Amino acid sequence: MDNSNQRLNDVFFYGLYMDEEILKNKNVEPRNKRVAFANDYQLRIGNMATLLRKKDSQAYGLVYSLTHDEIDTLYKKSGLTDYISESILVELDDGSKIATLCCILLNEPSSSESNPEYFKKLKLCMESYNLPLPTTV
């Protein structure tokens, strides 16, 4: 059993961090890519993307295996300090379910927040991985 800060953790991504090139450009190695979705969650894009709990919804994304240092690089060291990590259960495309870390905003974006440029990039990213597009943002 590995207790080092280099041990791998499964992380569910639903925003632009699904893009392997973005991760690599931040010196993060995306390992063990898997398509997944989170039941009873909905993608919401305000100024930034987050997941909201919503019964009978699904949020699609990718799971990668990352180290704690890599997770810190993506969030704490990139100034995305409003995000907190939670454990959520996701279903993989083979039907199996796994616990993952997922970084979300604690405070729901206001209804007036939007980021059309981010959504445009996210749509292209999701299409490149053949993920279903969200019906609402």
Automatic annotation (TrEMBL):
**Matching InterPro entries:** AIG2-like_dom, GGCT-like, GGCT-like_sf
What superkingdom does the record give?
A: Bacteria
Q: Where is the Gamma-glutamylcyclotransferase AIG2-like domain?
A: 11-105
Q: Name a Pfam family for this protein.
A: GGACT
Q: What is this protein called?
A: Gamma-glutamylcyclotransferase AIG2-like domain-containing protein
User: What organism does the UniProt record list as the source?
Assistant: Arcobacter nitrofigilis (strain ATCC 33309 / DSM 7299 / CCUG 15893 / LMG 7604 / NCTC 12251 / CI) (Campylobacter nitrofigilis)
